[in-house]
Write a structure and sequence with these properties.
heteropentamer; A mainly alpha (253); B alpha/beta (322); C alpha/beta (263); A: 253 residues; mainly alpha; MetI-like fold; 2 domains; 11 helices; 0% strand; B: 322 residues; alpha/beta; 5-stranded mixed sheet; 4-stranded antiparallel sheet; 14 helices; 44% helix; globular; binds adenosine-5'-triphosphate; binds magnesium ion
Chain lengths: 253, 322, 263, 253, 263
């Protein structure tokens, strides 16, 4: 089955997408739940959002936060994961906190964040940053620990010091793991968006969904879910393209 | 009815000569108005008496209960005044008023220098979206001749309002009890610049609601729930301390906190409720709340109050009790 | 002057899932500066272990290893290593692999490129500079690893069966190239091979090892003059030395491992 | 630095733990924030919880949910990740949904969950399951895609069919990735606990923290955070022990 | 009867980062049932590529490969393969590696153990059954891979430089073992080596390949009778055939890759 070319992924994506919409519509039409909006209502809400501008406004605000938090988180997680994987003291000092905060629900952190970072944009980006960082650092750490010792040895005998080994051996060798981390971090970033926008956000998709939930505007929640899902999916595709470029040296199927 | 000589010794199934009915009841277990009624009903074994095979589920808020109702998982639930726009917009039907609260405050920090609502122009006002905090803010702004555009509205999670206020991130908090008490404890110099009592025209009424499905297919069961409620309500009105104790034992919530809630609200005797229902006061009050919701944008247009506030079942229940 | 390599009463015990495995048992060996020493012995007798100890990639369980008179505390670019399994960086092209060590020496981009190209051509990979390791054949990978080690020009070369995957002619060419640069630059070379012919042809001294536990069973001097020529391979003296090494390697006790151990 | 034995990890953990407590205490003592409880108050609340039984009750309820959700999530993620990595159709059909739901905040899913699963224990476990599954499936998928083709080929020429290759090649070869997934999933499971217990839970740590937040019993929130963190950390250690046993074949530092 | 292997006008072009690389160019070869064919040629001439095509691990760009008269559509246990890089499963012990294929054949646990032990002993790893691959030396890994392939007893054996990492004596023993079982069980063997001596000693036919692009440049019949003996290696006939193969492999054009290509 490796050989058969088969249909392209894009078509399969489309098929599953159409299937999903179909099931949803069916459910909305057959079920008697007033709170389950049907596709037309959602499309209507979508158009309204575009027309009145709120959709773009919310989306732009959220996208900025997620991108900033995600990039910061990943950028810090890679060296942190390296330090943890490489130096015992770093692992001993940092790992418990990473583990600890990873299990703490973001909601519970919000009071703390307010006290230390206030309610501005920084605080919101920090919550997302934290989610991205904590997801990514574990994967990077594992990647570093799983680097084949042969490569490290080969670099050492060529005269590499720890910094070089990090940049030119560990990072490329654990790239597949780092990508796992980045993909998971991307999901976490978006999933934490709502929590972050509990922090005094005038605009944002999470905020919009929060109020929509309060007001049971379910079609607007669905618009929010779809926007977040679509943006997340698009960013994930970008990561995959990047991954393919950076890990094409691997001998995989 | 069934013949009484069946071998059944199960008085739950045959209470008062009526076959027992199943009912899914939700409540807010951090509110004395929710958990208090449930605890009293349990203590006095009112469910058995009314012939209800009850299935109790604690919730944290009103909207989740409405979602559960829409999904058919819940028949009856309790919600505070801040959520009653949901029945108003057709998501459920109010079957009994619960309490009037006076626990909503507009509190200004000492540093802001604000002494009255007029002074909050241009200040940062932290407010939980969708709750009664927003309502008190709206009323206060109206009265002061201001609009939301005159202030910097900072939407926050309810507990986050406290954190933000205490750490100086906002100048004014529009918040309800007991979070308001917490603010006053932490920042004793803070100034209360508005409270429900300043707006006697609008009563913040909490309510027990029934799902639309239950109102169609399970009227009988809902009516029996109201029998339970009527008795529990009278008990709590007469024995507030015991009610607090029972509620604290039921939910694990701290008694002093629940007592704090009691101090900021008013319960009515069941006779009073019946009278209010009959002379139109109840519908008038909910109508006033609806107007506020429309103003706040939570509803597009008002609906006739009769469509979403039912007073007949309550009357029936009172009837069958007497 | 201290010997270039001094292995002093070294024992190496691996802790493995099956308990302790004694890979080297009280081995001592001195290699002088500029010497070319080959290491032969049956599979599993501890050749790679010895080389890794000198490279600083393993630590002796007891005894010590000195390089240049100082105890080895880790790997370094003074000791070039060609690993038995090549150990090319799969994420770098052949050229980048060769340039890896050069870059660490602070060479300019142009110098790096030139030197890498030089060594790639030396091993017959001139046209494969931009190929990734996965795109190279087995022998090509091995040659790339050789080029990488040569390029940093270390004073001590540790080579673990470097020509094992090469065909006979390529192998002979590589042997001659190695000897030529060794003579020119007066390097010290420790060279593992399972090919007795190769061991004798290259070495000034052939160290013969025997397994279970790994020990040095014989050290054979090769008094043939450098440069070595193809003719020498056919000389009776060569045949005689070759015979002695062969007997050393394939001494009944030495090879007992293949047939006797499982019974 | 690979060689130096150094202090053991356990000591470092202890040190960083003491340091953390110290900083917290210092902050609570110096800062004038009444919402930040000091260690003694938290310990008091802890003891009270033990005495009155609520702590154990809440913990047991949550632990059950998390363990059930986590195990289900992981158990499903591994074969799902394999299918996605191995069969193009599976990838095409499943990946968009995985990506999609990964980015959707758990809070936003609650209305949907109520509709389909009601408000019982199943619904709560499902929310946790979903979080665990979605975190783990990505890592497994990446692991499967990164399996060295050589091993697959070696198995094929020995006569292995797809099922055998999955069980005896892909699973062990991608074990390091699966462990990344499991560790991340564990964090997600705990972090989603609060969201899941918004679903009408009478007991549970998340529930306890929710009410404590209502009543601003901050020391009880901290007790909840500490319990969650400690249990998460302990379960993570278990995973690490398991990992060491299952991936000891690797040639890593 | 159809030949066991029939390679028909096969061209294999790799799509690589550097553009297309023609590895095999219009190669045809038939191998009869029970034949022992060795494949020699300089590094990078396409030997492994050819073997992988027969194994079903690669698909020809054009032309076709038939095994037993049927086009190859994928790998299967009828064709045992020993890979150039061993490809042991690092997570299984030596014994479990050998048992891997046996398990798939539905053998009972006891049978599996016995058979695995038998083949491990055959390759001199009787005492290393419970060692993980990382605990084995290079040569031991190779021997373990050999045991794994032998154990499933395939009717066609495809071996890619299987004895490359072994010392001379072990190698000779392995050669003789291979020939012995081959004769007994009338297997077909396609055997890649870079050792001309080995190629001639083992084969009924030696296929000589030349690189750039990979082609068959000569096919040399070896009319020596089986069983082969050590004496035969010294016979003039052997020397003559050996010479012919050597010249075929090291034809100037064939070896141009090492020195001429980068200039
Ligand atoms: N990491 C390890 N753990 C346990 N035992 C090991 C380890 N590495 C090597 N050994 C054992 O040490 C012995 C010597 O191994 P070594 O690799 O030095 O052999 P070698 O002489 O290089 O063999 P070859 O010629 O086959 O490469 C072998 O018996 C091997 O099983
Ligand atoms: N995946 C690949 N991508 C691109 N080129 C490849 C790939 N695999 C092999 N080649 C090229 O194909 C040619 C033949 O490779 P092959 O591995 O068949 O050689 P070989 O005869 O086995 O050599 P050796 O004796 O060194 O193992 C080489 O030039 C090599 O660079
Ligand atoms: Mg070795
Ligand atoms: Mg090859």
């Amino acid at each position: 089955m490796r050989r058969r070319q088969g249909v392209s992924l894009a078509w399969l994506y489309l098929a599953t997408f159409v299937l999903g919409i179909g099931l949803w519509w069916l459910y909305a039409a057959l079920g008697d739940n007033e709170l389950a909006p049907a596709p037309p209502e959602v499309i209507e809400s979508f158009r309204e959002g575009l027309r009145d501008g709120w959709l773009l406004e919310h989306t732009a605000a959220s996208l900025q936060r997620v991108v900033a938090g995600f990039l910061l988180g990943v950028a810090l997680a890679i060296p942190a994961g390296f330090l943890m994987g490489w130096y015992r003291w770093a692992r001993g000092m940092v790992e418990p906190w990473v583990q600890f905060f990873r299990t703490v629900p973001p909601l519970a952190l919000i009071p703390l964040v307010i006290v230390f970072l206030g309610i501005g944009e920084t605080a919101k980006i920090f919550v997302i940053f934290l989610a991205a960082f904590l997801s990514c650092v574990i994967a990077t750490f594992q990647g570093v620990r799983n680097v084949d010792v042969t490569f490290v040895n080969a670099a050492r005998v060529l005269g590499a010091n720890d910094a070089t080994i990090f940049a030119r051996v560990i990072v490329p060798a654990s790239m597949p793991y780092i990508f796992v981390g980045m993909r998971v971090a991307l999901g976490s970033s978006w999933a934490t968006l709502v929590a972050s926008e509990l922090l005094a956000a005038p605009t944002g998709l999470g905020r919009m969904m929060q109020s929509a939930q309060q007001f049971l505007q379910t079609e607007r929640i669905v618009v929010g879910i779809i926007m977040i899902g679509a943006l997340g999916f698009a960013m994930d595709r970008l990561l995959l393209v990047l991954e393919r470029r950076l890990t094409s040296w691997q001998e995989v199927r | 009815g069934c013949s009484g000589d069946s071998e059944s010794s199960d008085d739950q199934a045959m209470a008062g000569g009526r076959e027992s009915v199943e009912l899914n009841v939700g409540y807010i277990d951090t509110s004395i108005n929710g958990v208090g009624v449930i605890a009293v009903a349990n203590e006095l074994e009112l469910w058995e008496k009314a012939g209800i095979d009850v299935n109790l589920t604690p919730f944290t808020n009103g909207p989740t209960q409405v979602e559960a109702m829409a999904a058919g998982s819940l028949d009856v639930g309790y919600m505070g005044a801040g959520a009653t726009w949901m029945p108003a917009s057709g998501q459920a039907v109010i079957v009994a008023p619960s309490e009037a609260t006076y626990g909503d405050f507009l509190i200004a920090s000492p540093d802001s220098g604000a002494q009255s609502v007029e002074d909050i122009e241009g200040l940062r006002v932290g407010v939980p979206v969708g709750g009664s905090g927003e309502m008190i803010l709206s009323l206060a702004l109206d009265a002061a001749g201001l609009t939301e555009d005159d202030i910097e509205k900072v939407p926050l999670d309810p507990p986050a309002v406290v954190s933000a206020f205490v750490s100086g991130q906002i100048d004014v908090a529009a918040i309800f009890s007991p979070l308001s008490d917490q603010i006053m404890q932490s920042v004793p110099e803070a100034v209360v610049i508005a409270n429900n009592k300043d707006f006697p025209d609008v009563t913040f009424l909490g309510a027990w609601v029934a799902s639309n499905q239950a109102m169609e297919g399970k009227q009988e069961a809902v009516e029996r729930f109201l029998e339970v409620y009527i008795e529990a309500n009278d008990y709590r009105k007469e024995n507030p301390e015991e009610t607090v104790e029972l509620a604290a034992a039921e939910s694990g919530a701290p008694a002093e906190q629940l007592q704090g809630q009691v101090d900021a609200l008013e319960w009515f005797t069941s006779d009073q409720l019946l009278a209010d229902n009959e002379d139109g006061t109840t519908r008038e009050r909910f109508g006033a709340l609806q107007d506020l919701f429309v103003e706040l944008g939570r509803m597009e247009s008002p609906r006739p109050v009769e469509e979403w506030v039912d007073v007949d079942l309550f009357a029936q229940a009172a009837e069958s009790l007497s | 002057m201290a010997p270039m390599i001094s292995i002093q009463a070294v024992t190496k015990v691996y802790q493995s899932s099956r308990g302790d495995v004694t890979s080297l048992d009280d081995v001592s060996l001195d290699v002088d500066r500029g010497e070319f020493v080959t290491l032969v012995g049956p599979s599993g007798c501890g050749k790679s272990t010895m080389l890794n100890l000198v490279a600083g990639l393993l630590e002796p369980t007891s005894g010590q290893v000195l390089v240049n008179g100082a105890p080895v505390s880790g790997p370094g670019p003074d000791r070039g290593v060609i690993f038995q399994q090549y150990a090319l960086f799969p994420w770098l092209t052949a050229r980048k692999n060769v340039e890896f060590g050069l870059r660490l020496q602070g060479l300019s981009k142009r110098e790096r490129r030139e030197r890498a190209q030089h060594y790639l051509e030396l091993v017959g990979l001139g046209r494969f500079g931009s190929a990734l390791p996965k795109e190279l054949s087995g022998g090509m990978k091995q040659r790339c690893a050789i080029a990488r080690a040569y390029a940093v020009n270390p004073s001590l070369l540790l080579m673990d069966e470097p020509f094992g995957a090469l065909d006979a002619l390529t192998r002979v060419q590589m042997q001659d190239d190695l000897l030529a640069t060794w003579q020119q630059e007066r390097r010290t070379v420790l060279f593992i091979t399972h090919d007795v012919d190769e061991a004798v042809y290259l070495a000034g001294r052939v160290v013969v090892m025997s397994p279970h536990p790994g020990r040095i069973s014989d050290i054979v001097d090769v008094p043939l003059p450098y440069p070595r020529t193809e003719d020498m391979r056919l000389s009776p003296q060569f045949a005689e030395i070759r015979g002695r090494v062969w007997r050393g390697v394939h001494h009944p006790s030495a090879t007992s491992n293949l047939r006797g151990d499982g019974a």
